[in-house]
Amino acid sequence: MPRPKKQLKRAAARDTQDPGQARRPGRRRAQRQQTNNNEQDVQAQLAPPQPQAVQLPQAAPQHQAALLQQAAPPQQAQDQAVGSLSSSSTLCRPSSAGHSSPIPDITLTSHIQSLFNASVAVNTRQTHTAGINSFETFRRSHNLPSLWPPLDTHITRFIAYLSLSGYKYSTAQSYIAAISFYSRAIYNVDPTNHFIIRKLLQGMQRTTLHKDTRLPITLQLLNKIIPTLQTVCNTIYETKLFTAAFTLAFHALLRIGEFTVSKGNTPATIIQFHDITMQQTNIQLTICHSKTDQLGVGANLQIPASNGVACPFAAMHAYLHMRTSQTGPLFIHFEGQPLTRYQFITILKRCLNAIGVDSSNYNSHSFRIGAATTLAIQGVHSDVIQESGRWLSNAFRTYIR
């Protein structure tokens, strides 16, 4: 059947067209291609660096070394999905007339890294690092290829391995969350969002129930601990320091990371000297950062004076009388170093052993558990207990013994 005249004319025009004047792609196609290039550039910046604890197949690119400072999937898998930032990236397009001058690409790239890094808490990054290290160690020991994103069969076997090795459900859950985090950040996929994986975690939660063996430091026990500090501590200043720290931890239901330095925080994020105000009969305390307040909204507490040797007001007044006006953390040693989590727990256990109490099931959280238990025994309403301890859920009920 002969073709219409219009089609013949179009074919003749294509045959006589100069190759140098070939039809260019449409504007919409070019815009979509440019958008895809931008997305690839941003994903390339989110690739975390090589972990120190585990030697993965190849070293991470140098441009990624400063990002997140935590474990990353093998470099071989990264090369298949992401590349380095392009010098011609359109993240910084020339500004139109009347706007500010363009920001250099290197500045934008650095700020992207900073924002992404700031979105994850320090403790979370450490947990992610441990999870990725454990996952890669498991795959090497079981001769499984280090593919990223990982296969669902690798993840299910990893969960079974954690369960058989005696890991807690919470640990397994956090390790799987680490795999999910890196897969979404680098590849924009979540291999852990699988029915079988969710059911395996649920099964592990039901079959590996661990009873909380931590014992509470009740007010009665605290009244026995405080006098013992005179014999446990080496100086009068240290005695005042730990008396104030113990009584405030109990009466304010503090988390250990809120007033001592540990690996998960810094001296600048714990309770500071200027965060406390001594009023006539109570202590006004401001907690600027906590586990449930990552954005630093802050919480204001009123801690009243009480009778007995465990009075927080009297203990704090005596400590501040000897403490210098040095700025920084509230609880500091005589030389100015901040109180650490290890020191707090060590002195606590020495006091317990001195009064004939087995200290094996007591730790820093025992103050918080004991305070919640004491309030419940006194008949305080559960809503008040939850608000006093700044719990965001009903988890406080597990603290009441």
UniProtKB/TrEMBL annotation:
GO biological process terms, semicolon-separated: DNA integration; DNA recombination
InterPro entries in the record: CB, DNA_brk_join_enz, Integrase-like_cat_sf, Integrase_catalytic, Integrase_recombinase_N, Phage_Integrase-like_Recomb
Source superkingdom: Eukaryota
UniProt keyword annotations, A-Z: DNA recombination, DNA-binding
Spans annotated as Disordered: 1-104
A molecular-function term among this protein's GO annotations: DNA binding
Biased amino acid composition, Low complexity: 32-96
Domain Core-binding (CB): 106-187
Regions of compositional bias (Basic residues) in chain numbering: 1-11
Protein name as catalogued: Core-binding (CB) domain-containing protein
Native species: Magallana gigas (Pacific oyster)
